[in-house]
UniProtKB/TrEMBL annotation:
Protein name according to UniProt: Alpha/Beta hydrolase protein
Keyword Membrane: no
InterPro entries: AB_hydrolase_fold, Epox_hydrolase-like, Epoxide_hydro_N, Epoxide_hydrolase
Alphabetized SUPFAM superfamilies for the sequence: alpha/beta-Hydrolases
UniProt source species: Crucibulum laeve
């Protein structure tokens, strides 16, 4: 497959991987959907503005769409990209199998890059960017090596161990080992959103080979001593949105953080429950509505890989009341080049001045469109930001 040749100096030996969901899993989903009940109509479920959550009308329509959803078509598209699994021995004595999508260049001076997803995302988020790259370049002209790893506990990567409180630091260490094992030890840069932005920050702070970080998510409380008098209208609108997320949009995060076992059991028991829980985020956190197929592809992948319960662990660290989040944590201040892209429909679009207190901010761009899933909603804009950041800082 084009772009699938691992760099010659790699010490890891990843195995090619093909996504192949068993027919029995597809058949089981259809049976479960057929017999899944939709909740009775209520005052709350009739509000088209979704002030109380998604509507019964939406869930009924999406249930029918899911019953005719062509997973094999989507699976074929997924498999048109090179996939790999790499065994990584970690310092905790465990071996992890880390799944990643990769586009590898034949250029000897290709710049190594890593793209990191969050929740309820997956590697699927970055396939539009990967598609843009493989249609723009050939393996001989691609200026970059680009890898998109699946977070531990997500899709095809190993779950966290049962006897350890797995944290962002553990993910960062595994991904640094992955990068260095692929021959990126002289330096690589990372882009991340959502949970991936926190992992990227830790990689920059704790791992020498990570030479720069660009993020599009920097949720944090207002820093002490920052003057907000210079904020523009977009900044002010973003802070209103941030306050609303904190006030009425973050209940899911508290549930993930404080009772992950309970919600993991609930969401693993019914595909319709999973669709409602994830679908709400794709509806509320985007600037423009995503196609139903995009939502169903993501939810289907969580369902088929049985990873919703193993994907929730970052919230204990990030959202448990009293904990310090990743971006305001002084031990993960980014002293290396740091870039930040601002999108208006992000769940918590903080101003440049706030983000600048968390690192050596050398690149900032404010957009007029786009939301939390920028890699899906505005792939070329996000990629241009990251590429411009790399051009500015890579020496």
């Amino acid at each position: 497959m084009p772009f699938a040749t691992i760099p010659a100096n790699a010490t890891l030996k990843p195995s090619p991987f093909t996504v192949a969901i068993p027919d029995a899993s597809l058949e089981e989903l259809q049976v479960l959907l057929k017999h899944s009940k939709v909740a009775p109509d209520t005052y709350e479920s009739f509000h088209e503005d979704r002030r109380f959550g998604i509507t019964n009308k939406w869930i009924r329509e999406m249930k029918e769409n899911w019953r005719s959803f062509d997973w094999r078509k989507n699976e074929a598209h997924i498999n048109s990209f090179p996939h790999f699994k790499a065994p990584i021995d970690d310092d905790d004595g465990n071996q992890y199998s880390v799944h990643f999508v990769g586009l590898f260049s034949q250029k000897t001076d290709a710049i190594p890059l890593m793209l990191l997803h969050g929740w309820p995302g997956s590697f699927l988020e970055f396939l539009p960017i990967m598609d843009h790259l493989r249609t723009t370049y050939t393996p001989e002209t691609l200026p970059y090596h680009v890898i998109v790893p699946s977070m531990p506990g997500y899709t095809f990567s190993s779950p966290p161990p049962l006897d350890k409180d797995f944290r962002l630091e553990d993910v960062a260490r595994l991904f640094d080992k992955l990068a260095r094992g692929l021959g990126f030890g002289k330096g690589y840069a990372v882009q991340g959103g959502d949970v991936g932005s926190g992992v990227a920050r830790v990689m920059a702070a704790e791992h020498e080979s990570c030479v720069g970080v660009h993020i599009n998510f920097c949720i944090m409380p207002q820093p002490v001593g920052v003057d907000d008098s210079t904020l523009n209208d977009l900044d002010k609108e973003g802070l209103v949105r941030s306050a609303e997320f904190s006030r009425i949009g973050s209940a899911y995060a508290l549930e993930h953080a404080t009772k992950p076992s309970t919600i993991g059991i609930v969401l693993s028991s019914s595909p319709l429950a999973l669709l409602a829980w994830i679908g709400e985020k794709f509806l509320d956190w985007t600037d423009e509505d995503l196609p139903p197929e995009t939502i169903l592809e993501s939810v289907s992948l969580y369902w088929f890989t049985e990873t919703i319960s193993t994907s929730l662990y970052p919230y204990r660290q990030e959202f448990t009341p009293g904990n310090i989040g990743a971006h305001e944590n002084l031990q993960w201040h980014i002293n290396k080049p740091f870039g930040f892209s601002w999108f208006p429909k992000e769940i918590a679009p903080v101003p440049r001045s706030w983000a600048a207190t968390t690192g050596n901010l050398v690149f900032f761009r404010q957009h007029l469109k786009g939301g939390h899933f920028a890699a899906i909603e505005r792939p070329e804009a996000l990629w241009k930001d990251f590429e411009d950041f790399i051009t500015q800082v890579w020496v």
